[in-house]
Amino acid sequence: MINFLILPILIPFLTGILLIFFAKNVSLSRWIAGISSFITIIVSALLVQKVRVDGIQTLDVSNWQAPFGITLVSDMLSALLVLTTSIILFTCVIYSFKTISKEQERFYYYSAMNFLAVGVIGAFTTGDIFNLFVFFEVLLMSSYVLLVHGGSKIQLRESLKYILVNVISSALFVITVAYLYSVVGTLNMAHISVRLSEIGESGIVTVIAVLFLIVFGLKGAIFPLYFWMPGSYYAPPAPILALFGALLTKVGVYSIMRTYTLFFLNDKDFTHQLLGILAIITVIVGVIGAIAYSNIKKIVIYNIIVAVGVILFGVAVMTPESLTGSVSYLIHDMIIKAALFLLIGIIIAITGTSDLRKISGLIKRYPGLGWTFFIAALALAGIPPLSGFIGKLLIVQEGFKEEHYWGAGIVLMSSLLVLFSIMKIFINGFWGTPQAYKDEEAVPVRKLLVAPVILVIISVLYGAGSEFVLPYISQAAETLSNPSIYIEAVLKE
Amino acid sequence: MEIVMAFVIGILFMSATYLMLSKSLLRIIVGTGLLSHGAHLLILTMGGLKRGTVPLLDEKASAYTDPIPQALILTAIVISFGVTAFFLVLAYRSYQELGTDNMERLRGTEGND
Asked: Residue B10: inside a domain, yes or no?
């Protein structure tokens, strides 16, 4: 089927619309949301296999030939990210069954989740820079709804700031696209790449590159632009936090990856060095935050920032191996961050607080939760057989090879401190004297554990089966390091 | 003509920035509206202010106007309309719940310890 690559966008979209009609019937909408997100996983897995066998898939929407119409492009990177997104959507949906109140579910909760997935998957799939903006807006609009869903005071307050930041960054996005259009006169990403390489090194292109870095950096929370994140992500409940932490920032990271490997290749000395420096400062800031706080939500939120820095450092080094590392680490991080957020959601549900000093001795009473968290923590830091290892290894190795000693050293050091920050939760929260908490009897821990356990198992398999996964990742990185593959597939020259 | 447009856009951005830096929530929302107007005008200008005819094949003219910037602006206007509507409703609801529209009093320090 040539329309295959649009299915992962269409299924959540139609499900979202369908769920609006059945929103008042909670158990029916749970079934619909669960089944459709499971179908999305199967379809995206088939898409990954198709890209693996037949190469990059493209779809010229309503038969307007590229570069004139909107083109959807599924290369290996986008197919893999679509698969990861649909897995995370599925786990967050089944986790929500037991955590979100019926009253909230009735107010179009699952619809908003599905529309968020439409935006994220669309942003990963599109091959048109303005269409990327449109999908960004789709996911942002749903994220506004999800962030404020429930309407508690803190959510309302943080939503105001979150929306303001994103409205400004959207305006900047439009401005940047306008500048880019005035220079190249096209919106198709492959065509832009061709035109930009014809132009060669020029001041305005560098300005556009930096503007794109600001726009996507605001979404992806890189160094000077991460200020909104710890506050806003603190507000929503665990499943929404997991969706945001695993998907939203990664869309920004993906967009930086895409634009910096496809468009801005003429002035690498400036643009990629800037990206590298910012990535390293991002790692440092994230690590400081992760160590400084004793609030479990904040610790994991700052760990998102660390991961963003590590991935972007790999992009800035720009060798085929470092890009392989970045792609591998990106997928690992999406899975493991979702798992961690869902796990700390359970901890918060049991103890009724996210303050680490008020929690202790959980492992005695909840051994399953404790050990799942332990494995997730090891995977996050990149301990060898688990999933973070191979990505970080490649990034650090290439960093040293390309003589970015400081950067690679800091990335290496950061893994140790990340391990410390997350072990701090384990040591303080799970060890120590067991204590009784007020509402713990009401928490269905076993049922809640299903979703994070699925994610942790995937993460373990992803690490242990690197031999099997790596060809897919290398294919994704090959397209990134050699843009002509992408361009030829889209423009069919 | 482009010079004039540049000034208009600059003034819009300037007033938007001023409004968004104020404390009152309503002014901030007006500021975001002005910001998106500025961005839309910028697209129009960046596409080139040609005085050609409509881009249809049977029009035998020497110059055509580029239709793409207009399509982009239309999309962006619709989106910013939706976001502004949402923002206004949220602002009203927050005012009811939190009892203030002063951003100074909406700082929040949960979890910062």
From this structure: yes
The answer to the question of residue B110 being in a domain is no
Q: Please count the structural domains in chain A.
A: 1
What is the mean pLDDT, run by run of 10 residues, along chain A of 493 residues? 85 96 92 96 95 91 86 94 96 93 90 96 95 95 93 91 94 94 92 92 92 94 90 92 93 95 89 94 95 92 95 93 94 95 93 88 90 92 85 93 92 93 90 84 89 94 90 93 92 78
Q: Does A258 touch chain B (CB under 8 A)?
A: no
For an interface test with B, which of A143, A164, A169, A354 has the most B Cβ atoms less than 10 Å from its Cβ? A164
Residue B35, chain A, CB below 8 Å: the answer is: yes
Q: What is the CATH number of the domain that holds B12?
A: 1.10.287.3510
Cβ contacts of A178 on chain B, cutoff 8 Å:
39, 42-43, 45-47, 69, 72
Report if residue B58 sits inside a domain: no
- Cα distances from A449 to residues A114, A238, A367, in angstroms, run 22, 13, 11
Cβ-Cβ contacts under 8 Å for A397 (sequence gap 6 or more): A321, A325, A408
Question: And the tokens for B101?
Answer: 């529209």
In total, how many domains does chain B have? 1
pTM: predicted TM-score of the whole model, two decimal places = 0.95
Asked if the Cβ–Cβ distance from A170 to B83 is below 8 Å, we say yes
pLDDT at B58 over 70: yes
Residue-level pLDDT at A200: 85
Query: Which of chain B's residues have a Cβ under 8 Å away from the Cβ of A153?
Result: 97-98
- Structural domain boundaries, residue A470: 4-491
Q: How far, in Å, CA of A330 to CA of A235, rounded?
A: 25
Greatest alpha-carbon pair distance for chain A in Å reads 68
